[in-house]
Specification:
168 residues, mainly alpha, 7 helices, globular
């Protein structure tokens, strides 16, 4: 995924200064809902190999890189991709955590250049960090107690809700 996400990050950085918030949210919402529809179709037709195809990986990487740069909206895209890859919930959570840590660190220079990352926001982030750590600990406990099937249903439902929220 890395080279495709990097290309998507660059594409998103270029588009960042050309799209207004309203249009941006709609585009991201449609992308997320299109990914949900594709995942549902994949499940229905039992296209289990689809997520392992290099073209699918390239498309997801580009979409995720662009979506995360434009609106931190790559979560649903990556979640659906990781589900389609058949990762068990523990590997899913670990992979997603490492993915977003690395991607978000990569975005810092872009956000600074666009004046989206300020000292005030850095202070707020530092203030909220303990809550993020608490959420990670609670999530770790919950992921152990949830079945694979329920985990997949939760991820799919939250992806749909995220797509709809972006649209409206």
């Amino acid at each position: 995924l890395a080279p495709w996400v990097a290309a998507g990050l660059l594409l998103g950085a270029v588009w960042l200064s050309h799209l207004d918030n309203s249009r941006l949210r709609r585009v991201l919402g449609l992308l997320v809902l299109a990914m949900v529809a594709l995942d549902l179709l994949r499940r229905r037709l039992r296209w289990d190999a689809l997520a392992h195809h290099p073209v699918a990986t390239a498309m997801v990487g580009m979409i995720a890189g662009t979506a995360t740069t434009l609106g931190n909206a790559a979560g649903p895209v990556m979640n659906l991709y990781l589900l389609a890859r058949g990762l068990p919930r523990h590997e899913f959570v670990g992979t997603a955590a490492w993915f977003f840590l690395l991607v978000n660190l990569t975005k810092v220079p872009v956000f600074i250049s666009q004046q989206m990352l300020t000292l005030e926001l850095a202070r707020l982030t530092a203030f909220m960090a303990p809550l993020v750590l608490l959420g990670a600990l609670v999530g770790r406990v919950l992921v152990r107690r949830v079945s694979e099937k329920l985990f997949q249903q939760i991820v799919l439902t939250l992806s749909i809700l995220a797509g709809l929220r972006l649209l409206w």
